[in-house]
Amino acid sequence: MIMKFPNDFLWGAASAAYQVEGAYNEDGKGLSIWDEFSQIKGKTKHNTNGKVAVDFYHHYQEDIKLMAEMGLKAYRFSISWSRILPNGEGEINQAGLDFYERVIDELLKNDIEPIVTLYHWDLPEKLQTKYGGWENRKLVDLFVEYCRILFEKFGAKIKYWVTFNEQNVFTSLGYRWASHPPNVSDTKRMFQANHVVNLANAKVIQLFHKLVPNEKIGPSFGYGEVYPLTSSPADVLAAVNANQFNNDWWLDVYCRGYYPEKILRLLKKLHLDFEITAEDLKVLKAGKPDFLGINYYHGGTVKAPDFEKVKNQKDFDKTDPYLMAADKQAASPESYLFESVENPYLDKTNWGWEIDPIGFRIALRQVYEKYQLPIMITENGLGAFDKLEDGKINDQYRIDYLNDHLVQVGKAIADGVPVLGFCAWSFTDLLSWLNGYDKRYGFVYIDRDDYSAENLTRIKKQSFYWYQKIIESNGGKLEVK
């Protein structure tokens, strides 16, 4: 069986500004919340940071030359807000605009489609300090103004724009689990901040449709289908709940303009709800995207929650099964909906992420059937410990991973899902947000570690040559097992 992909399929790769650029304080750039957060001892592996990263800022021509050699059709990258507006607002840093224009022009010169992400987690630090970041509705208008600058500057050159990368990840890790900036552990504040981001997303899409009416824009979402552990109706219901909580909570807002009612009711009972005005609803309804970006790494498996366990939580108010007596703070919302378990049929990566290629096909099918929008795969890849031996990197495990996932993409396309392209994560190795430089994703090895960035030599891995053949054959060289 030969996989058939559309003739105009965008075979690509991806990155994010903080993870690759470096030059954190050069040419007028302001600090981001990640520049500050990474200075907190113990938050990142070996206290690694993006001050140098893999220095794409100074190596972009070399890297794009390698992209062209590979035959890449698209490159997804993010623009750093604080490189454009050092304070997040006010005076524009022309040097920042000039840098991204050079990158875009170099890509276009090499027939590589630039796909621009407007926000990949690196909020200007000044906006966090001055306004409290995404918890403040003021950020909506500030984000819109930042995007306006980019639309007016680059709108004629860029066909595909991504608003937010993995809103579900940066809001939960930043505001609930305190493992990303702004280092907050408060579930209610997380849902409040998330709503502000939803408003910003919708307003920017509206602005884009006015300023750049002939091109496409959409958010990029970290999606994973959730399975029931067994065919027990209680487990099936738990999986329905989990998909609503983990996926539909964001995608319904993006595509339909409203939150899933079941989850919204639960949050109200848990006193985790947030203000939704009549004007908010109008904004959300008017911000429908042109496509959905899907980042796929893994899904999950759940069983029915143990309500006895929930009921016996400390300080639980027996008169109302949703309230905590002491301070009306909620127990975990998930505990009323599902309990996560391991899937006995799936292997895992070195970082404990389940490997589920068929789940990719399921995810693409489910997302398209629900929302009827074209899909751009904006991330998929394998983080691994790559070893440089005799000047070479044999990463057959990455080839196997990507091959198996791309086969399922091809099958989803055959099923009728309109997939615009596939952006592997990532083109070069880069800084893993919390895991330093040991967790490598790239087709191109960067010769650096957690302690030294003196070398930064680019070395093509075995997967580089494999992906080159896949692109050249438009997927025809994929191995269907």
* Share of helical residues: 40-55%
Instruction: Note the overall shape.
Output: globular
Shape-level CATH architecture: Alpha-Beta Barrel
End-to-end distance: 9 Å
Largest sheet, strands/sense/barrel: 8 strands, parallel, barrel
Low-confidence stretches: 314-330
CATH level-4 homologous superfamily = Glycosidases
**Total individual domains:** 1
The CATH class is Alpha Beta
What fold name stands as the CATH topology?
Answer: TIM Barrel
Strand order within the widest beta sheet:
1-2-3-4-5-7-10-11
Strand content: 5-15%
Task: Describe the protein.
There is one protein chain. By secondary structure, this protein is an alpha/beta fold. The protein has a single domain (10-472), classed as Alpha-Beta Barrel (TIM Barrel), CATH 3.20.20.80. 40% of the residues lie in helices and 13% in strands. The protein has 16 helices and 13 strands. An eight-stranded parallel beta barrel has the order 1-2-3-4-5-7-10-11, surrounded by five helices. The longest helix is centred in the middle third of the chain and has 25 residues, at 187-211. Residues 314-330 have low confidence and may be disordered.
Q: What tags apply to this protein structure?
A:
three-stranded mixed beta sheet, GH_1_N_CS, eight-stranded parallel β-barrel, beta-glucosidase activity, GH, 16 helices, Glycoside hydrolase family 1 protein, 481 residues, TIM Barrel
Topology:
Layout: E1 10-14, H1 17-20, H2 33-37, H3 56-70, E2 74-78, H4 81-84, H5 94-109, E3 113-119, H6 125-131, H7 138-154, E4 160-165, H8 167-175, H9 187-211, E5 216-222, E6 226-228, H10 233-256, H11 261-269, H12 278-285, E7 292-295, E8 300-303, H13 307-311, E9 339-341, H14 357-371, E10 375-379, H15 396-415, E11 419-425, E12 444-446, E13 458-460, H16 462-472
Parallel strand pairs: 1-2, 1-11, 2-3, 3-4, 4-5, 5-7, 6-8, 7-10, 10-11
Antiparallel strand pairs: 8-9, 12-13
Helix pairs in contact: 3-5, 7-9, 8-9, 9-12, 14-15
